[in-house]
Design a protein that fits this description.
By secondary structure, the protein is α/β, with parallel strands linked by helices. It is 45% helix and 14% strand. The chain is built from 21 helices and 17 strands. It starts with a helix and ends with a helix. The C terminus is likely disordered. Keywords: Membrane, Transmembrane, Transmembrane helix.
């Protein structure tokens, strides 16, 4: 028996040795090739390359998907005439990855050479920041234009640019936009954030993701200085969030003819969770945090007095920096409160001027999950253009990657708008009253087509703060149907009548509740039946236990009776 066991062990060891000898007979070059292939596959998927997909589609690119209201005059009168918005976007073949595009933009970007003219803007709170001008005459070399530009009656369009986080007029994508716009005969002014562009912070106010005061002051000042010149605004990344928030806050009372928001984060709370979700996103989180720490280092004296400097130095994420710096300087009770208060998604429905929003589904910094699809469709002034690829603020195109697609698309849209009768003209209206608290307090209910809205006492705000998370956003946004009528939850008014010391409560307006239920079943038939099915399935165990106790209770008591 022992001999048999030892023989089996020897046979196994011999077989193992033969396998090892077989592996040693394979040339080393084969192992190297296998390792390289595995590494290529890993990098291809990790960096989300789409080169092979582009090859299979013969480098035709993917169509631009538009979301808009079917009754929108801005779409039918402006966006429908834009060739780029109805075409296809094809990324530069050797930059066929959102991460490669974004990295290339930040480290190189191939920007054109521009020479700004700087003016300092002095805010009412004592703050100072730089306005960098690029006149069309500086690019076209037309001295006549330069002389006319100094006149108060000049009608040359002015484009105001709001950069992204830690970006200023020296950023590559800002230079692309400024040069391309000035080349078309427009004047460009880049509104640098406080503390950037080589200007020191001269007050206790710093900019943040929802700081609209500087934007409002600059726009009003330019409107007073150039009353006959149409003003347009382009916001990028955090600048786009500031732009949309400003437009929503002031409604029609803005001297802006039209605007474009590029790669807006929309919902900062969703974005903060997204940027630390995957390993590749954490690289961006760390890189942006380092940029914020360098910004804080330039203004250490103020941050040491107004914020937690030790916490700023130890920050390892954007959320950490916002907790130790932005929240304290802005006097928010928590980081989440800051994110909720400064998110622009809640202001989309209040935008009252022509607005083009451009985003990419593969944006590695601002996730598509935060895009307010239904709010954009509900607002007749907004056209949302989404591409499958593009990265964050990159959208390189052509073999040489010398141009940015979104720059051309924004200029085309604003150019058509400028020649149309749909430019916005300022109308005085009561100032927008923001939320009383920066923390959401109301409950949420499902009101229409999977849309989630907060219950408020005001029936006119039934579709505010809509959040939608689609499994396939690119296919979903291709359908540009009519804006769904929001189903309002009626208030159940209780009429309390007192007679003979007794209180009787009866529910009023039953007809409105019945009508609401009918509308709910008509528009949400599938969702309602699904909820009913879930309710039935979830109660089956309790029903089964009850039936078991009722049917078998007597049988369980029979042995005791027999005794």
């Amino acid at each position: 028996m022992a001999d048999t066991f030892s023989d089996s062990i020897d046979a196994s060891a011999h077989a193992f040795n033969l396998i090892l000898q077989g592996f040693t007979l394979i040339p080393i070059i084969h192992y190297e090739i296998a390792f390289v292939c595995f590494l290529i596959i890993f990098i291809y998927n990790f960096l989300e390359f789409h080169f092979f997909h582009d090859v299979l589609t013969l480098f035709r690119g993917s169509p631009v998907s538009l979301t808009y209201n079917s009754a929108s005059e801005i779409y039918h009168g402006v966006a429908s005439k834009c060739r780029l918005l109805h075409g296809r976007y094809m990324a530069t073949p050797w930059l066929s990855s959102p991460h490669i595009q974004t990295t290339f933009l930040n480290f190189h970007g191939r920007p054109p050479a521009v020479s700004y003219r700087r003016k300092l803007f002095h805010a009412s709170d004592g703050g100072t920041f730089a306005l960098d001008w690029l006149k069309s005459s500086d690019v076209l070399g037309d001295s006549t234009c330069e002389e006319n530009a100094a006149l108060r009656h000049d009608k040359t369009p002015i484009l105001i640019v709001i950069p992204g986080l830690t970006s200023d007029s020296s950023s590559a994508y800002i230079k692309h936009l400024a040069y391309s716009t000035a080349e078309r005969g427009w004047d460009v002014v880049v509104c640098n954030h406080r503390g950037l562009g080589g200007i020191s912070v001269t007050s206790d106010c710093f900019y943040n993701a929802g700081w609209t005061k500087d934007t409002r002051d600059v726009i009003n000042d330019l409107h007073r200085e150039y009353p006959n010149a149409p003003l347009f605004v382009v916001g990028t990344s955090i600048g786009a969030n500031i732009l949309v928030k400003y437009l929503g806050e002031d409604g029609e009372d803005v001297p802006i003819a039209g605007a474009v928001a590029i790669c807006s984060p929309w919902d900062l709370l969703i974005g903060s969770k997204f940027i630390c979700r995957r390993t590749v996103q954490k690289f961006y989180d760390r890189a942006l945090t380092v940029g914020l720490q360098e910004y804080a280092q330039l203004h250490q004296t103020l941050y040491s007095r107004l914020a937690d400097w030790d916490g700023i130095v130890k920050s390892r994420s954007i959320r950490d920096f916002d907790n130790y710096a932005t929240r304290l300087v802005g006097k928010f009770e928590s980081v989440d409160a800051y994110y909720r208060h400064c998110s622009s998604a809640q202001y989309v429905t209040k935008v009252a001027i022509p607005l083009l929003c451009i985003s990419a589904l593969d944006d590695p910094v601002c996730t598509w999950e935060a895009i307010p699809w239904d709010e954009c469709r509900a607002n007749k002034n907004i056209v949302l253009a989404v591409t499958r690829h593009g990265g964050h603020l990159a959208f390189f195109e052509g073999l040489t990657a010398s141009t940015l697609w979104w720059v051309r698309a924004a200029n085309e849209f604003l150019g058509v708008l400028h020649c149309s009768p749909f430019m916005h003209t300022q109308k005085k209206n009561p100032p927008h009253i923001g939320p009383e608290s920066s923390v959401d307090q109301g409950p949420y209910v499902n009101v229409s087509n999977g849309m989630v809205a907060a219950i408020t006492k005001d029936p006119s705000s039934s579709t505010d703060n809509v959040k939608l998370n689609d499994q396939d956003p690119f296919e979903r946004q291709k359908v540009n149907d009519e804006s769904d009528a929001a189903v309002r939850v009626p208030d159940a008014k209780n009429i309390v009548s007192r007679s003979s010391g007794q209180t009787s409560v009866k529910v009023a307006d039953l007809n409105s509740i019945k009508k609401w239920l009918e509308q709910l079943f008509q528009q949400n038939r599938r969702s309602t039946w699904m909820l009913t099915y879930i309710a039935v399935i979830s109660t089956l165990p309790f029903m089964g236990a009850t039936l078991y106790m009722l049917l078998f209770r007597k049988k369980l008591k029979q042995p005791k009776s027999l005794k």
